[in-house]
Amino acid sequence: MRRVVFTGMGCVSALGVSADHTWSGMREGRAGIGALTGLGDNAVRTPIAAQAKAFVPGEHFDDKRLVLLDPVSQYALVAAREAMVQSGLGADGGERTAVVIGTGIGGASTQEQMAQRLYGQGNPRVHPMAIVRVMPNAPAAQISLEFGLRGPVFAIASACASSNHALAQALLLLQTGAADVALAGGSEACITLGTVKAWEAMRVLSDDTCRPFSQGRRGLVLGEGAAVFVLETLEHALARGATILAEFAGAGMTADAADIVMPDASGATRAMRIALAQARLAPEDVDYINAHGTGTPVNDVVETRAIRAVFGGHADRLAVSSTKSMHGHALGASGAIELVAVLGALREGVVPPTINYLAPDPECDLNVVPNTAQLRPVRSALSNSFAFGGLNAVLALRRWP
């Protein structure tokens, strides 16, 4: 099995339109959650969201290109461009470069616009490019087209675990020799009227802010954006003199097979243990976990129990933070955006905080890095994503060198 490393990253989030802006916002504990705009007056009860308000499509694409791109593809392409520039790879990756992009919903804005025309306006005509805008594989395909990448190209859809599943699949492609390079991550443009109303119906959205693991938490806050990473085999990266950001040491994937929405600690526990085993890490080697940490009353407790089951007494020495408190829950893109935090922690020895924290919850009795970043060496880290359907994907990274 070949070793795999990260050599580039790009991001669009509520914290800014670059990985640097996103990481600096995380490190500083800056809030990307604000007033929800753009859905019409009195259309939704939810007053807040983590929107990518700094993203202006016309700054990145001309009108001819925008015709083909739902926002979910726009975010992914801008993130991929940044990752490719940082990696130093050429524009034509040939037949040995893969693209794997996760999304929970796909082209939600295009889907909603079609429904409005057909059912709201009684207009039988829809945009001729609607299919290529709405399809979940559009972000992966558009990245392939832009950079001439002709290896395996596909999408992953596993709700809130989509990004981590996509990165895990890219890892397997490189480990087993199916590709030498991969662009992988996730994208989501889910803040539409229909999507917000659907989440409101589940009664899990917060009306004040996102405060994972804290007393007084009231639910999750929807976010949007994308993050894309360049992965390479170690041999390939060293041969071209690339700057290595971190090693992608392993991944664990499991299913609870218990409930469509209620998490089960046993599935999360097994995913973390598999990731550690594949990475050849002992629990004591891990210094930081970027938690799934949605801010809902149940999820945070279940994740705490799973972490304690895996790490035992070492759980008291871990830093465990949820950056969703800053960039919101971007559904299928969350794991990718959160990986920016993991890479930053590994490289700089700074663990980003869980902001909006009020007081400890006895059932979430971990060092959740409340409100202020913590300076500490991070040798290796896990990134957790747990999704509806009982789907779990955990990534393990190691500091380089």
Task: Explain what you see.
The chain has 401 residues and is an alpha/beta fold. It folds into two domains: 4-239, Peroxisomal Thiolase, Chain A, domain 1 (3-Layer(aba) Sandwich), CATH 3.40.47; 250-398, Thiolase/Chalcone synthase (Peroxisomal Thiolase, Chain A, domain 1), CATH 3.40.47.10. It is 34% helix and 19% strand. It contains 13 helices and 14 strands. It has helices spanning 19-28, 63-66, 71-87, 108-120, 130-134, 138-147, 162-175, 193-202, 234-239, 265-279, 297-311, 324-327, 334-348, and strands at residues 4-12, 34-35, 48-49, 97-102, 153-156, 181-188, 225-233, 246-255, 288-290, 319-321, 350-351, 374-375, 380-387, 391-398. It has a ten-stranded mixed sheet, with helices on both faces. The chain has a two-stranded antiparallel sheet with strand order 2-3. Strand 13 (380-387) and strand 14 (391-398) form a beta hairpin. Helix 1 (19-28) crosses helix 13 (334-348) and helix 3 (71-87) packs across helix 6. It is globular and about 60 Å long. The model has no long low-confidence stretch (mean pLDDT 97).
